[in-house]
Structure formats: structure tokens, C-alpha cells
């Protein structure tokens, strides 16, 4: 959805006041919201409350009925959050006025304290949006940066931190080498000697840096060619979509997934073909369909896939549309993603 913001320089974020409570409940449905307050009796909601099973879908439907013809063209709508975008200031004022007029006609009210007008950088649905692209909200990363260092054996894996960091353990082989030492009890046995030295401190710091320093994702420019990097292993599939913008290679999107039980039996070359097929025909289909792109891989058999007669079967489909090119340098980003 955020790809619709490509090329925009000005952004306005609108937030509706007590969003769900602006939706009236029909008389025959009010009884379904009844709750008991002993000894005062039963009460029913007159307006839609948070927690109702159909509340999100109902509210989104209301917003799209109100702004449906403007959605994805001059604004984006996600529940009670609206972002208006444009490439010029004059155009932005006109678009904001159209959205405000439409909200007024529908009887919807805004919360002025949460609205931001005509900015070049705004926060929207948990992301920071600017002309440069989409990035993670620094406030969300701040909690990871400030995660306390474990001070005793019971916190050797740092409560809750290990669950977040686990997917990255294989991505730092040099830093985390030997992290599982023989003789140490993962359950926190008191007989195990607690050691936290320079090596552990450095590994902990780098792990936090990896979690809190994500790249800024570029908006796709469909007038330019894309570059697709893919890789595969017995652990899973990985793909990264790049595009050269302003003489700089930018990441447009990351993707990875695990393997099914049958896919784990595939030979290496077939896994590489599967990674490309999955990336082209499924994950990045909306970006690549009908557009020029090149494929970079470290797998030599992939270069033969451009000839359908040499690669029969369902995995040949991507190659009938676009050939693959070999790159002697391993595609490390895709290589890392496949291990998640």
C-alpha cells in the first residue's frame, strides 16, 4: 500500500477522533453488545466499541465508502489513519481540502492533536515516510538499543530478547561463533559458571545494532529496471529486490520463507530455481509483472534456465519471461534471508 506514495514530497496525516465511537449501532444489533455491571444490571453500546469481532472490517468499509475513489490516488486509508500525499505544495493543499470536505460530508470528526499537515517526513502506521522511502520508526528501535545487559546467569539469554534475536544468530557467524559451548546448561543451572566478557559484550552490541538499524526501503520507480537477487538452501528461500535510483542501488523489498516437507528433499539446483520462481511469480509479482528486470545469482545452472528446453516443468515458467544472469559474488542479503 505504501508504494502508492512513490514520488511524493509532501505528506499530511489525519487521525479520526475516537474512530470506532463515530459509528452508530443499529437498534436490532445493540443487544449483541450487552454486558453486565452488577448490581446495576445490563448495558448496551449505542456506538461501535473496540473489541467487537467485526469492528475493524466495518470501520474500514466505512472509510472506503467515504474516501474510496480517492484511496490510492491522493490518499491512503487504514482504519482511522489517513495520509494525503502529493509531489508539489499547491497540489497538496488542493488534495487536503478534498479529503477534509469528504470527511465533513460523511459526518466524521478529526482529532486535531494527532493531525500533521504538509510535512516532508511523517509517521504513518508504524513507519516513517519521506520522499526517500519507508523506514522503521526510531521509537520502536529505541527499546532494543536500550535493552539491558544480562547481569546474572538466569538472564544469560536476556528475558524476551532471545526470542527476538534468535533469527539473527546465524547471520553473525564471526561474532557469535562458539555461542553454544559444551558444558553449559541452557536452562540456567547454577553449577554453570557465569561469564560475561568482552566477546559477549561485543556480540550483544552487534546483535542490537542489526535489530535497530534497518535500511530505508525505496519506493519503486516503474520506469526503471529492477534487479532481483535470489538464493536458497535447505533452511529456506530468500530474495531481495533492488533498483538503481540516483546512481545508488536501493532496496525496494525483502522476502524470505521456509520450505515445506517435500521441498526439503529438493536438490540444490532445484531449490535455486524454486527461489526464483517464488520471487518472480508470487512475492514480487506486482513489482515485476510487465516490467524489465535482471536476476543475479551465484548458481551456475540458473544461467541455463533461460532456455525452456533445458529446464522443463513448472519451474521453467519464470525463465520464459526473463533470463537469469550469473554473478560470481554471493548474494549475501538473499543468503541471509533464507536462513531466517
From TrEMBL:
Keywords: Multifunctional enzyme. Residues 304-328 are annotated as: Disordered. InterPro entries: DNA/RNA_pol_sf, Retrovirus_Pol_polyprotein, Rev_trsase/Diguanyl_cyclase, RT_dom, RT_RNaseH_2. Coiled coil: none annotated. Pfam families: RT_RNaseH_2 (PF17919), RVT_1 (PF00078). Residues 1-129 form the Reverse transcriptase domain. The keyword Magnesium does not apply. GO terms for molecular function: catalytic activity. This is Reverse transcriptase domain-containing protein. It comes from Pomacea canaliculata (Golden apple snail).
